[in-house]
Amino acid sequence: MFYEPKDGHGLPHNPFNAVVTPRPIGWISSRGADGSDNLAPYSFFNAVAYVPPQVMFASTSAKDDRGDTKDSVANIRETGVFAINIVEYAMRDAMNRSSGAWSRDVDEFVDAGIGKAACRTIDCAHVAGAPAVLECRVTQIVKIEGAVNFVVFGEVTGVHLRGDCMVDGIFDVTKFQPLARGGYKDYSVVREVFSLDRPV
């Protein structure tokens, strides 16, 4: 099968997300200028540089009460900071609950029963007990093709690593089993890893 996206795919569901998979989930916590907290998962997320450490996530839809975007980007525009919480398998239901298009006055931490903790380098909350948290200061917000598509880039200013995930100085993802996004309604979980040496 071959198709050009501009012509449509002719399938019951869009296969694009199923092709680019698995994708890590950035569970983005942000705080508005009014002090309100928000928590939402984004699967267009990744690390993009080592020095300084930088990450990105993309928001691709909008809410009526936020104009051209969603709560996360709107808050980051106001305050310039955000945190990325890494999602473990055990928190899949809470993460899914926080994905709803709730009104801007809903605190997803409270709504989903998620513990909240204060970041150390930025004025923002993060998920208490998350396997890892990246505290970030926004470096740029880039408008890309499409009416509501924005890519947020941030520099990591603080890193939290949960103690039980550290084994002999290594951050061991099998200790918490990170959740990844597939296509459609699908997710996957990392329970096994292997190593390969680069050729020299």
From TrEMBL:
It comes from the Bacteria. Transmembrane segments: none annotated. One of its GO terms (molecular function) is oxidoreductase activity, acting on the CH-NH group of donors, NAD or NADP as acceptor. InterPro entries: Flavin_Rdtase-like_dom, Split_barrel_FMN-bd. Coiled coil: none annotated. Residues 18-166 form the Flavin reductase like domain. This is Flavin reductase like domain-containing protein. It comes from Octadecabacter arcticus 238. The lineage of its organism: Bacteria, Pseudomonadati, Pseudomonadota, Alphaproteobacteria, Rhodobacterales.
